[in-house]
Specification:
The protein is built from two helices and three strands, in the order αββαβ. A three-stranded mixed beta sheet has the order 1-2-3, with no helix packed on it. The longest helix has 7 residues. It is globular and about 20 Å long.
């Protein structure tokens, strides 16, 4: 499965390198302010605060 083009680029740009696949969603380790911009651009991402 692949995400919308640019998702991985955007995630790596804000320092997130580990994404857990779950269907068409991704559970991200949150905590970075820049993450909100990524989620805004890719609304299918689900942010989980661990």
């Amino acid at each position: 499965e692949s995400f919308t083009p640019g998702v991985y680029t955007d995630l790596v740009a804000v320092g997130i390198h580990h994404v857990v696949h779950q269907g068409n969603q991704a559970i991200l380790k949150a905590g970075l302010p820049q993450l909100h911009a990524v989620v805004d651009r890719h609304p299918h991402l689900v942010v989980s605060h661990w």
